[in-house]
Amino acid sequence: FPSHDSWLKDYIATVLEKDTATKIINKLLKVVDESESGLLVSVEEDLQKFKDATAESDRDDSIFVSDDLCELFSQEDSTNPINWRLKCLQESVGPLKEGLVHVFARTNVGKTSWLVSEITNFCHQLGDDEYILYFNNEEAGRQVKYRFYTAMLNTPLGKLKSSTDTAKLAMETYAKRGGHKLKLYDKDVFSVEDIDRFCYDYKPRIV
User: Fold this and answer.
1) How far is CA 187 from CA 60, 118, 141, in A?
2) 42 C-beta neighbours (distance < 10 Å), count
3) Going by fewer Cβ within 10 Å, which terminus of the chain is more open, N or C?
4) CA 206/CA 72 separation, integer angstroms
5) Under a CB-based contact definition with an 8 Å cutoff, are residues 39 and 27 in contact?
6) How confident is the model at residue 153, as a pLDDT?
7) How much is the pLDDT for 155?
8) pLDDT tens for residues 40-81?
């Protein structure tokens, strides 16, 4: 940080430290009173995140957004946005870059089908070390995986089941189109700590 920003740097470091300490204390208390187990791994992850954040703040970069247009353009070009399958979404909201996307609709109108259609289209746009994490608590994981296959290959499930050779060919094509980057976690109940742990392990592009 420049010298005139040092006070802000110290303030941010203090806030990060207090926030991390609060999270860790709450998790340790849950371990002590036996209300939850397996939290020590996430405590270690919290500490690592704090170290990463403080290391980032120790750089000499300004904490404010640069006025350099060339630098801003370069950052925009390097974000590697992901395109929607639906033309109306691509034109109305633009490529998917970052942030939280909400989808609202009545039950049984096709939300999951739409989501599966889009994320299977995202797979081939991902980098070699990028993944999509899909946390499922709706229908059986097997049925959701079937949806992945039928959407990715644009092939009815009945045809995929027609023979062993057809199934093997489908698996090969699925992998070539990036299906292996789509990780399906199937559990009726999962915690924020579960999601946090998987995100830490896989560094997903999309959750």
Assistant:
1) 44, 22, 8
2) 19
3) C
4) 23
5) yes
6) 93
7) 92
8) 778 888 888 888 877 766 555 556 777 888 877 776 655 578
* pTM for the full predicted model: 0.61
Task: State the Cα–Cα distance between residues 115 and 125, nearest whole angstrom.
Answer: 16
Amino acid, res. 147: R
Q: How confident is the model at residue 170 (pLDDT cuts 50, 70, 90)?
A: very high
Pair of tokens at residue 173: 């094509």
Among 133, 112, 122, 149, smallest CA distance to 182 is for 133
Give DSSP secondary structure letters for 27-55: HHHHHHTTS--S-HHHHHHHHHHHHHHHH
Token pair belonging to 124: 């081939």
| Residue appearing with tokens 């991902």 | 126
